[in-house]
Amino acid sequence: MLQTSNYSLVLSLQFLLLSCDLFVNSFSELLRKAPVIQLVLFIIQDIAILFNIIIIFLMFFNTFVFQAGLVNLLFHKFKGTIILTAVYFALSISLHVWVMNLRWKNSNRFVWTDGLQTLFVFQRLAAVLYCYFYKRTAVRLGDPRFYQDSLWLRKEFLQGRR
Amino acid sequence: MGKKQVRPPRALPPVPSAVQDDVPLNRPKKKKPRPKSTLVSTSLDGLVQPAVHRPSEDSEQPTKATEHPEAPVQKRHRKTRLPLELETSFSQKKASSPSLLHSENGTDVEPAEEAVIQKPRKKTKKTQQSELQYANELGVEDEDIITEERNIPEQQSIFTAPTGISQPVGKVFVEKSRRFQAADRSELIKTTENIDTSLDMKPSWTTRDVALSVHRAFRMIGLFSHGFLAGCAVWNIVVIYVLAGDQLSNLSNLLQQYKNLAYPFQSLLYLLLALSTISAFDRIDFAKTSVALRSFLALDPTALASFLYFTALILSLSQQMTSDRIHLYTPSSVNGSLWAAGIEEQILQPWIVVNLVVALLVGLSWLFLSYRPGMDLSEELMFSSDVEEYPDKDKGIKASS
């Protein structure tokens, strides 16, 4: 059974990482006096996303549903979050690499092209969706029903065996 | 008399076990009553009297008895009373306790034993009633009471701690300030029961409560960002139109004045739009596409607001390039300027229109949300009973499989 204190701690960490992500997304374009600053911000953002992915998977592994062997059920329930997080992580790294590649020598240079603008829009939109879905999943995983046996789970298990 | 009945076993010096073992074999008929007498005798002395007697103790025990003149009277009185309590729980063990006899040789106990055996059966009800009072964790359990002496070889008795026959007492010894103090069992039971009930009444803080409180906290942040965003967007568009002058005649002034403000505002707008969009999605439970789509088709104000926020977000992000261009503004006369002469209006006009549209969308969303500020489908669906939720998912799984 998930302890309340542990869950509070994990949830705080997740929200902290989400806040980091949102902050970098919002102000990384502004904080570009030196290319190193932007590079560090991008690295922090990518690590935050990676940590969030690790944490959410650890939370999945901690559920009774997962331990009962119903991985498919868990994936089906949170597939939106898993896919979106993966897509967002890929988009973020692509954008970061592209932007840093263009701005490394002169951070105040006008680097925008249509391709970069498109990638930027998609990455930022994915960030909002990722934030929403991730937050929802993190909050939902606090439901005690994921951590105990239930009639519903037994039905699912029987269906899975067939 | 009772003293005499009790004392003979104690007075005996330890006998080699081989000799003792032979005794019961010779007189097997007396096995059954004798354990009873030993129970009585040992329970009379309580914890003080050891079950296995050493020769050194034999000289001490009689002196203790003489020090307390009323002791023999109590003993005699208890002799008839205490076995009654013991009878109910230990009658089964009598048969298995002939070994107790081995160290005892009280042969003239039989008449008293008969009385002892008969009386307990009459008083079992009383003893059961009294035992019912302790029917909780502080109560006396049969397992806790040692009824028979351990069949320890006599030669080891010198080195082992004396094992007595225990019995339930009305007191509980509670450790207070490194000392055990006797406390009344029934009072202690009452106090512990009160604690239990108070604990039961206290609502426990579960993970669901944590999740719910976090969700509500974020809704508060979202509520703040909705209003702040609407205000910021309106202020921004007012500033732009004021700086641009009548019929956008003074665009160079706008660029010069606004270039320091363009990028910070763009960043702030994204932050607030992201927060507002997430909050609006939370309200319509966007993850449940069917529910969100249904409420959108029903022209639910909250669903419309979330759609407007998302549109505003896309429009705002699409102006990132222009914002950066404004941010890097230098007059066209300066070498390497991004702003060639004559293209100012061509670039700025759509940008101003988009900003105007964003301000309108954000303002409208705020109005729509304020129409039903308390609406939150996520909280209703996520934190309510899962009875409704799981069947939906069951259908989904069946459909997918």
From TrEMBL, chain A:
| One Gene Ontology cellular component annotation held by this UniProt entry | cilium
- Biological process according to GO: cell projection organization
At the top level of its lineage, which domain of life is listed?
Eukaryota
Transmembrane stretches, start-end: 6-24, 36-61, 81-99
Keyword field contains Endoplasmic reticulum: no
- Subcellular localization, as worded in the UniProt entry: Cell projection, Cilium; Vacuole membrane
Q: Which residues form a coiled coil?
A: none
Q: What does this protein do?
A: Required for ciliogenesis.
- Protein name from the UniProt record: Transmembrane protein 138
Annotated source species? Orycteropus afer afer
Q: Taxonomic classification, please?
A: Eukaryota, Metazoa, Chordata, Craniata, Vertebrata
**Gene name linked to the record:** TMEM138
Automatic annotation (TrEMBL), chain B:
As for membrane topology, the entry says:
Multi-pass membrane protein
Q: Which Pfam family would be a valid example here? A: TMEM237
Q: Does the keyword Iron apply?
A: no
Establish whether keyword Membrane is in the entry: yes
Which Gene Ontology cellular component annotation is one that this UniProt entry carries? ciliary transition zone
Transmembrane portions of the chain:
223-243, 263-281, 293-315, 348-369
- Record's keyword terms, sorted: Cell projection, Cilium, Cilium biogenesis/degradation, Membrane, Transmembrane, Transmembrane helix
- Which residue intervals are annotated with compositional bias (Polar residues) in the record? 88-106
Q: Where is this region: Disordered?
A: 1-130
Q: Where in the cell is it found?
A: Cell projection, Cilium; Membrane
N-terminal signal peptide? none
- Biological process, per Gene Ontology: cilium assembly
The entry's family comment says: Belongs to the TMEM237 family.
Tell me, what does this protein do in biology?
Component of the transition zone in primary cilia. Required for ciliogenesis.
Q: Which PANTHER family match?
A: TRANSMEMBRANE PROTEIN 237
Q: What name is this protein filed under?
A: Transmembrane protein 237
Q: Which organism is it from?
A: Orycteropus afer afer
Q: Which gene encodes it?
A: TMEM237
